[in-house]
Amino acid sequence: MAGAAAKGKSRPAEGRVRHLPTVWYPLLRPALFALDPERAHRIALEAFRLAGRGYRTGAATAPVECMGLHFPNRLGLAAGFDKNATAVDGLGRLGFGFIEVGTVTPRPQAGQPRPRLFRLPATGALVNRLGFPNDGAEAVAARLRHRRYRGIVGINIGKNAATPLERAVDDYVLALRLLGGVADYVAINVSSPNTPALRELQARAHLEPLLSALLAERLRLGRRHLPLLLKISPDLTAPELAEIAALVRTLPLEGVIATNTTLGRAGLDVAVPAGGLSGRPLKALARGVVSALRSLLGPDFTIIGVGGVDSGAAALDLRRAGADLVALYTGLVYRGPALVRDALRALGDGERASE
C-alpha cells in the first residue's frame, strides 16, 4: 500500500459524514444548478479542497479486506469527480472508504471543447463528453504524495487523445510508472466513450498485450501488492463480456470495475446530448453487468460496482448483485452528502442482515 495509507495510522470512520453537515446542500443546490455544470463542479471541488485543510481521521467502523487492501468501508467515490486529486482530503471527510481519482493521462491535456457536461435533472442523469481533461500524471502524483486522507486511493489511468491506438500501451505503461508509487490500486480505463477509438482496446487483440505490459511494469516497479483493475463499458455484448472475463481470469489481475458511462439512450423520453450517460438510467445496465461478471468470474474475484447509485437501496442492490465494493458519482451531484450517509447505512444494514 502507498505510504500515505501506511499501517498504524487511523482511517476515516463511517460516521465522518457528520463533519460536513448534510443540510447545506439542498439549500445551495438551486444556486449551483443555475450555473454551467462544469463551473458548478469547479466550485464544489474548491469547497471540498478547503474543507480538507481541517481533515480529521477516526477508526473505521465497517472495514473490509479486498485485493489485500484494508478498506474502511465498502463505499467509494468513482473516478471523474476529482480528476486531478485536488480535493481528496475534503472528499474523504464525507465518509468514503475509498476514492478513485482521474482519469489521468501521462501528459496534461485540455479535453474536448465546451460545452461538454450536461445535467438531465428529470432523469437524475449527467452526460459528459469531457475527453479526459487533466493536469497530467506528474502533477497528480505530486498532490497525492501529500494527502492526509487515510482511506484507499485508486488512480484511474488512460491514454492521451493524441496518442494513436497502436501506441496506447506506451501511454498506459508510462502512466503506471509515474503514478504507481502513490496509488493503492490502479484502474485501467479502456471504456470511456469520449476518447476516439478508446473502447476498441476492450477487444482481446488489444486488451491482452495492454494488460500484459502493465503487469510487467508492475513487477519492474516492485509493487507486487499494487492491485490492477480493468474498468469496462456497460455496452458490451454478452459474448464480449464473456471474452473479457475469460481473459482477466487467465492473468494476475485483481479486479474489474463495472461500469463506465453508456452510449445507450433506451427508455429516455428527453433530448440527450452526445456523450457518456451516467446516473439513474445506468442503474439496470450496471446491475446486469455486475451480476453477469459475478457468474463468469466466480466468488473470489473483486468487482467494484458503479452506476446509478442514487440511494442507499441502489447501493445495496449493486452489492447484492455481486459487487464487493460500490462507488458513486452522479448521485452525489443531485443529492449531495446525504447520499453518502444513506448508502453507508444501507450497506452496513445489509451486512448485518446477512450475518
Quick summary of this structure?
The protein is built from eleven helices and 13 strands.
3D structure, described in words:
The protein is an alpha/beta fold. The chain has a single domain, classed as TIM Barrel (Alpha-Beta Barrel). It has helices at residues 24-33, 37-51, 88-92, 137-144, 168-179, 204-221, 238-250, 283-297, 312-321, 330-335, 337-354, and strands spanning 64-66, 69-71, 75-77, 98-104, 117-120, 125-128, 152-157, 185-189, 228-232, 255-258, 276-279, 302-306, 325-328. Strands 3-4-7-8-9-10-12-13 form an 8-stranded parallel barrel, surrounded by 4 helices. The protein has a 3-stranded antiparallel sheet with strand order 5-6-11, with no helix packed on it. Strands 1-2 form a two-stranded antiparallel sheet. Strand 3, helix 3 and strand 4 (98-104) form a beta-alpha-beta unit. Helix 9 (312-321) packs across helix 11 (337-354). The two termini are 29 Å apart.
Ordered list of secondary-structure elements with their pairings:
Blueprint: H1 24-33, H2 37-51, E1 64-66, E2 69-71, E3 75-77, H3 88-92, E4 98-104, E5 117-120, E6 125-128, H4 137-144, E7 152-157, H5 168-179, E8 185-189, H6 204-221, E9 228-232, H7 238-250, E10 255-258, E11 276-279, H8 283-297, E12 302-306, H9 312-321, E13 325-328, H10 330-335, H11 337-354
Parallel strand pairs: 3-4, 3-13, 4-7, 7-8, 8-9, 9-10, 10-12, 12-13
Antiparallel strand pairs: 1-2, 5-6, 6-11
Helix pairs in contact: 5-6, 7-8, 8-9, 9-11
Report the C-alpha radius of gyration, rounded. 18 Å
Tally of DSSP helical segments: 11
* SSE string: HHEEEHEEEHEHEHEHEEHEHEHH
Could you give a short account of the major beta sheet? Answer: 8 strands, parallel, barrel
Q: In CATH terms, what is the fold-level topology?
A: TIM Barrel
Output mean pLDDT: 91
Low-confidence runs (pLDDT<50, min 5 residues)? Answer: 1-20
CATH architect. name:
Alpha-Beta Barrel
The neighbouring-strand order within the major sheet is 3-4-7-8-9-10-12-13
Assigned CATH class? Alpha Beta
* Total separate domains: 1
